[in-house]
């Protein structure tokens, strides 16, 4: 055992002793009215026993609570509330928005990686980024982005890769392919850089993606420590996961900063205004932004758009692989759109045609209900408060809304909540909108996801192009995938698939 490992063990032991000595019962809010209805769960042994199946365990706990809200305690004075109650979600995300920021704890855990980017900031710093970025997500920009980037990536990279795998009968990790697709796409959106992760030759872009992946996974791992401050000890000693994290972050930061600095140089010399990507927008509107702040802004956007759509699509294809009747309904809808516009199989869909795919949208929404890419999301309570269901929340407590559990609540979705039923979304042939407080997959209120429309259009383009051309079967049919809780909900061992062309004569 080397010296740093011994020091680490010693410090772990020391912090454990300190914890046992110092930890007292949580500072209760003045009244305990909120506690009487709810079991106090989340004691250390329960948490440790269930950490590997946190989502299902906490879903069970919440469905057994009277108002689907539970009080949760962990050592290190981290206390809070977890809820699957739409009224509470509306209260924290909209009505009392100012009282429930991301908060110091959330921000400090992700600060090394995300700095003060939109995903990791509150107040004015958040507001100014939100305002500037929102222009990038209007209909015109969205249409251009889809037609120029998504379609090109599908035609020139995704389909050839899938076509080749089907010809050689090679098993392909669909999750990996979709993540590479999304990463290429969001880098183009963020700073007009194409890392060529899909179909590329494993050069610097792929290295950037790998470092990004590690940084995201290891940063989110900081939330799962049984002793919340332990990561600081490891960080101080520069050991274990913290050492890897530091290296990954340095690689991500350097990569982004190099691009930003060269763009700044370019701007000085050419004076050409190029507002096609987010970086240009932020360089154009706020001249004094430092390269570091621009880097933080860009990294947050890459994080937001990177794993979310790929996560949703991976679960979507897994679900469809055992539901041929739903695949047939999607194919029928695509056929109807083609015959209406006289388009042949193989030709790309327009933006308007993609918007018209209501059944496909319903099937995707149903996937998002059961497998939300962001399964839990946490805020901090600024001032003591009473939630609409009577639960008292103390100052500085965390408040987590549990999107994964909400998608599985009988009280919200009825007795058939466990069934995959796209029809529950369709009304008069149109995919209906659900209240974002009952279905907070894209968040709700002032911080609602900026990329929601973009995500649906991107997912529909990919799903339509793939489903029309291939039958996607799981390579390990008998196995149910396990989820891996990173910042998003991924499959633990990837998603190995076998592909078969629907029409062997169709050239891809
Ligand atoms: C299925 C796909 C997606 C899902 C489920 C999703 C979900 C979410 C959620 C839950 C949040 C709130 C996170 C928080 O504040 O804690 C969020 C925020 C955000 N999302 Fe998405 N997202 C998706 C795709 C995208 C895409 C493709 C983009 C484009 C880059 C994007 C951009 C953003 C941004 C910029 C925010 C921050 C908004 C703010 O804080 O004001 N998202 N998203």
Automatic annotation (TrEMBL):
**Which cofactor does the UniProt annotation name?**
heme
What InterPro entries does this protein's entry cite? Answer: Cyt_P450, Cyt_P450_CS, Cyt_P450_E_grp-I, Cyt_P450_sf
Gene Ontology MF annotations: heme binding; iron ion binding; monooxygenase activity; oxidoreductase activity, acting on paired donors, with incorporation or reduction of molecular oxygen
Report the CDD domains cross-referenced here.
CYP86A
Residue sites binding heme per the record = 449
Question: Which is one Pfam family of this protein?
Answer: p450
Task: Give the keywords, sorted.
Answer: Heme, Iron, Metal-binding, Monooxygenase, Oxidoreductase, Signal
What's an example Gene Ontology biological process for this entry? Answer: lipid metabolic process
Q: Which domain of life is it from?
A: Eukaryota
* Residues spanning the signal sequence: 1-26
What protein family is recorded?
Answer: Belongs to the cytochrome P450 family.
What is the recorded name of this protein? Cytochrome P450 94A1-like
Organism of this sequence: Cucurbita maxima
* Gene that produces this protein: LOC111469989
């Amino acid at each position: 055992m080397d010296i740093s490992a011994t020091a680490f063990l010693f410090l772990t032991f020391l912090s454990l002793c300190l914890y046992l000595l110092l930890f007292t019962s949580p500072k209760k809010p003045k009244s305990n009215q909120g506690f009487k209805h709810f079991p106090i769960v989340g004691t250390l042994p329960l948490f440790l026993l269930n950490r590997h199946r946190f989502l299902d365990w906490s879903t069970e706990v919440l469905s057994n609570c009277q108002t689907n809200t539970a009080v949760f305690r962990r050592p290190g004075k981290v206390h809070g509330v977890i809820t699957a109650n739409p009224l509470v979600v509306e209260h924290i995300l909209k009505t009392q928005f100012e009282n429930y920021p991301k908060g110091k704890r959330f921000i400090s855990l992700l600060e090394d990686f995300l700095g003060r980017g939109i995903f990791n900031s509150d107040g004015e710093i958040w507001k100014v980024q939100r305002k500037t970025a929102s222009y990038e997500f209007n209909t015109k920009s969205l249409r251009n982005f889809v037609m120029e980037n998504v379609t090109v990536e599908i035609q020139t990279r995704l389909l050839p890769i899938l076509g080749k795998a089907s010809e050689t009968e090679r098993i392909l990790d669909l999750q990996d392919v979709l993540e590479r697709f999304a990463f290429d796409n969001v880098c183009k959106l963020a700073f007009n850089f194409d890392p060529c992760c899909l179909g590329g030759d494993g050069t610097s872009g792929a290295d950037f993606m790998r470092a990004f992946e590690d940084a995201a996974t290891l940063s989110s791992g900081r939330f799962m420590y049984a002793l919340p401050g332990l990561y600081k000890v490891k960080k101080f000693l520069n050991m274990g996961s913290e050492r890897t994290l530091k290296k990954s972050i340095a690689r991500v930061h350097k990569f982004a900063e190099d691009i930003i600095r060269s763009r700044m140089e370019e701007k000085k010399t050419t004076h050409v205004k190029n507002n096609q990507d987010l970086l240009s927008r932020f360089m154009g509107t706020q001249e004094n932004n430092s390269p570091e702040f621009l880097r933080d802004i860009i990294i947050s956007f890459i994080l937001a758009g990177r794993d979310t759509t790929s996560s949703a699509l991976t679960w979507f294809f897994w679900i469809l692989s055992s539901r041929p009747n739903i695949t047939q309904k999607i194919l029928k809808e695509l056929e109807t759109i083609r015959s209406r516009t006289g388009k042949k199989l193989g030709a790309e869909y327009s933006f308007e045609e993609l918007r018209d795919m209501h059944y496909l949208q319903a099937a995707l929404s149903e996937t998002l209900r059961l497998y939300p890419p962001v399964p839990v999301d946490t805020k901090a309570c600024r001032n003591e408060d009473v939630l609409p269901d009577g639960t008292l929340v103390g100052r500085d407590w965390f408040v987590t809304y549990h999107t994964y559990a909400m998608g599985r609540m009988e009280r919200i979705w009825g007795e058939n909540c466990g069934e995959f039923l796209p029809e529950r979304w369709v009304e008069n042939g149109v995919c209906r909108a659900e209240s974002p407080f009952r279905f907070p997959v894209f968040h709700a209120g002032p911080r609602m996801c900026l990329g929601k429309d973009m995500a649906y259009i991107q997912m529909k383009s990919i799903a339509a192009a793939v489903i029309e051309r291939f039958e996607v079967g799981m390579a390990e049919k008998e196995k149910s995938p396990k989820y891996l809780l990173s910042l998003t909900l991924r499959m633990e061992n990837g998603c190995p698939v076998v592909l078969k062309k629907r029409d062997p004569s169709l050239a891809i």
